[in-house]
Amino acid sequence: MFFDFATGFGALLAYFAICLAGALILRRFVAMPREVFRKILHIILLGSIFILIYGFETWWLSAIAAILFIAIFFPVLNFAERIPGYSKLLIERNEGEIKRSLILSFGMFAVLISICWGWLGLKFIVIASVLAWGLGDLAAALVGKEFGQNYIEGKRVEGRKTLEGTLAMFVVSFVSVLIVLFAYSSLKWYGYVPIAILTAAVTTIVELYTKNGMDTITCPFAAAAIMTPLVLLWGV
């Protein structure tokens, strides 16, 4: 058990060390917009879910690893905030953003792993839920910023979001969930598309009305909540 945990957690640490070093080196030698670098960091975060799912033999070791990751790196980030240039280096939009993202993301990973893998035995729902939010949000930000011309505004919408970005999130979420279902589940063939459509639609709507950056929590949980009963209905 200890060896399994140590191997998996070591792989998680190595993954982040290699990816973050690579991202910083790339930024050093390649001129790129600030938002692009932010999204590279976002993709690195998303990729860690595969280490958590496939780097551990049991769900509870994986969940413990996610919590331990927070426990180790929260104080590290707290200290790093005192270093001049830290916030600029990681392109924080506001003070403490990376630290807050760490808690929300890995806390969300731990809960999804415990419920979907631990309770239901459905690893792929963890992956699908995280990608439905993560890749969809990535597409929304990039497409909205580059091509957005039609804005969605309202009391329940934070700031101004673009119709183009929202549609991009739906499409990318749909494709992400569809690929995961094809690759990892044993659903009936007629279940793939409707489950992917409904999951993408719910995730997109939830993201649209979520404020204060809490979509890290609300979107994956919403995706899992709609996907789980449908998967169980059509058989895994």
Helix content: over 70%
Main beta sheet: strand number and arrangement? 2 strands, antiparallel
Measured between the Cα atoms of the first and last residue, the distance is 29 Å
Neighbour order of strands in the largest sheet: 1-2
Average of pLDDT: 90
Please characterize this protein's 3D structure.
Helix 5 (97-119) runs antiparallel to helix 6 and helix 6 (123-147) crosses helix 9 (215-234). The protein is mainly α. The protein has a domain at 122-236. 77% of the residues lie in helices and 2% in strands. The model has no long low-confidence stretch (mean pLDDT 90). Strands 1-2 form a two-stranded antiparallel sheet.
Which properties best describe this structure?
236 residues; mainly alpha; two-stranded antiparallel ribbon; 9 helices; globular
Give the gist of this structure.
The chain has about 240 residues and is mainly α. It has helices at about 1-30, 35-55, 60-80, 85-90, 95-120, 125-145, 165-185, 190-210, 215-235; strands at about 150, 160. The chain is globular and about 55 Å long.
